[in-house]
Amino acid sequence: MVPERETTTRERATSGATASSRARARLDQPRPPRRRLLPEWDPESFGRLSERVARFLGTGRFIVWMTVVIIVWVVWNVSAPSGLRFDEYPFIFLTLMLSLQASYAAPLILLAQNRQDDRDRVNLEQDRKQNERSIADTEYLTREIAALRIGLGEVATRDWIRSELQDLVKDLEERQNGHHPDRGVFPADRSSGRDVHDR
């Protein structure tokens, strides 16, 4: 028998759990989306954008355009009137712009390389499976060819049939001429057939 004190404690705990004013999350409905401070983006579209940027950065067109921009920048800030120059001789702003471009280009190139590595890994896995299937098919065909060769070893060949027919013709000619070297023994019963020679 359970003491009275424990029973009342259990009843209070049960009634407190059901009488809770806090709303419980329903499991049959999806959670409402939480508000986030950071913007959300599709990783796949961002990866495609990074690959496009990395491809452009790896072309000769980008190098030519960057060289033209730097030359125009330097020539303008050296030969333009003083009031129109926006970056004087040490070209600190140009250095800042090139550093900013490099700091964005490096992660984009790394992201594009990671995506290419993932694609290469998938392609290698598919190639490995294809190679395993090819090896299995080759082994199967090798076994089938070996079985056919063994089966052909038991089939009468043209040369063997020709030799047997020549022996029969020779025996018939000898019987017609009156010579009976193997009288009473049919040529097919002699032990000079293909099986004896094959052994």
How would you describe what is shown here?
This protein has 199 residues and is mainly alpha-helical. It contains six helices and no strands. It has helices spanning 4-18, 43-57, 60-79, 92-153, 158-177, 194-198. Helix 2 (43-57) crosses helix 4. The longest helix is centred in the middle third of the chain and has 62 residues, at 92-153. The protein is elongated, with a radius of gyration of 46 Å.
Query: So how many helices?
Result: 6
What is the overall pLDDT average?
A: 79
- Give the radius of gyration: 46 Å
- What is the H/E order? HHHHHH
Give start-end ranges of low-pLDDT stretches: 191-199
Main sheet attributes: strand count, strand direction, barrel closure: none
Structural class: mainly alpha
Helix content: 55-70%
Number of separate strands: 0
Q: Please report which band the strand proportion falls in: under 5%, 5-15%, 15-25%, 25-35%, 35-45% or over 45%.
A: under 5%
Q: How many angstroms does the end-to-end distance come to?
A: 94 Å
Shape: elongated
What's the short story on this structure?
By secondary structure, the protein is mainly α.
SSE diagram, text form:
Layout: H1 4-18, H2 43-57, H3 60-79, H4 92-153, H5 158-177, H6 194-198
